[in-house]
Specification:
The chain has 11 helices and 8 strands. It is of the alpha/beta class and about 300 residues long. The chain has a single domain, classed as Zn peptidases (Aminopeptidase), CATH 3.40.630.10. The chain has an 8-stranded mixed beta sheet, sandwiched between helices. α5 packs across α11. The structure holds D-phenylalanine and zinc ion. Zinc ion binds next to loops.
Length: about 300
């Protein structure tokens, strides 16, 4: 009896407009439209086509990529900055974009590398991560998201030469600036054509990383997608952040590794074949992307950002 009364009272409260006005639900993360992400990938492909087939460090296709991403962010009201550095005798560039507002002492950062290898246009590696965080950044503005925390996005140069740009950025920060970054999420290869659904393991990563890993996993669970943890170690741009003690996380759909039959039963695709047969090759074009993997990862990036920065 008492339980029934309590239940009825709870139903009345949740059903009343007064209760809804008093405690508005947090703005839900948007479902990212994969067609928008694909349009950004087409842009990267066009840039490569117009610049000797690549977007590599020190080549004109790289700077054209930086300028194009910057123009989209500037138009959406971001405060952007191009940071240059020298590597292998050529000038490289990072693009940093801050979304106005939020607690400047509490920064959530998303990043990915924008450079390709010189062998090809680098559409899965890493047009996908670059295009996805760009679209998420644009949706922050489009949805009117007003996070409590401050949002920052980074597109790194010269990752393919040894994580050069992201390392340069982290080293350029004072210890105070580093300590303000409470989370760094990295997205490198999120549309592999024979995809796996990997979330960076937090084992051995700074305290606070496990919570990020769990949020990324929860994002895939909400889509009904099983995940595996992977130790990406020093293979992508979160490494410099982790060394600085910043909690890190990320997602990955696989590179030169071979999909096992257990993974093929779980995720579909082809066992005994690489996750990305065009990894670091000239065939890493817009044809080398799984739209399903791209879409799922973009949705998980958005839900994780919304939950982490709210
Ligand atoms: N860092 C990627 C590359 O640019 O070659 C490969 C990679 C990405 C490996 C993510 C592990 C995790
Ligand atoms: Zn690569």
């Amino acid at each position: 009896m008492r339980i029934l009364i309590a239940l009825a009272a709870a139903l009345m409260v949740t059903g009343s407009t007064a209760a809804q006005a008093a405690a508005p639900a947090a703005l839900a993360a948007p479902n990212i439209n994969v067609a928008n992400v694909q349009a950004h990938l087409n842009q990267f492909q066009s840039i490569a086509n117009a610049n000797s087939g690549n977007r590599a460090h020190g080549r004109p296709g790289y700077l054209a990529s930086i300028n194009w991403v910057k123009s989209k962010l500037d138009a959406a009201g971001y405060t952007t900055r191009v940071q240059s550095f020298t590597s292998n005798g050529a000038t490289g560039y990072n693009l940093i974009a801050d979304y106005p507002g939020g607690d400047a002492n509490n920064v959530v950062m998303l990043g990915g590398h924008l450079d390709s290898v010189s062998a090809g246009p680098g559409i899965n590696d890493n047009g996908t991560g670059s295009a996805s965080i760009l679209e998420v950044a644009l949706q922050v503005k489009a949805t009117g998201f007003q996070p409590t925390k401050h949002l920052r996005f980074g597109w790194w140069g010269a990752e393919e030469l040894g994580l050069v740009g992201s390392t340069y950025y982290v080293n350029s920060l004072s210890s105070t600036e580093k300590s303000k970054i409470k989370a760094y999420l990295n997205f490198d290869m999120t549309g592999s054509p024979n995809p796996g659904y990997f979330v960076y393991s937090s084992s051995g990563q700074p305290t606070g990383s496990a919570a990020l890993t769990q949020r990324l996993q929860a994002g895939f669970t909400a889509l009904g997608v099983q995940t595996e943890l992977t130790n990406v170690g020093g293979r992508s741009d979160h490494a410099a952040f982790a060394r600085a003690g910043i909690p890190t996380g990320g997602t990955f759909t696989g590179a030169e590794g071979i999909k096992t039959s257990a993974q093929a039963s779980k995720w579909g695709g082809t066992a005994g074949q690489a996750f990305d047969r065009c990894y670091h090759r000239s065939c890493d074009t817009t044809a080398n992307v799984s739209a399903t993997a791209l879409d799922r990862n973009a949705d998980v990036i958005a839900s994780t950002l919304w939950a982490t920065a709210a």
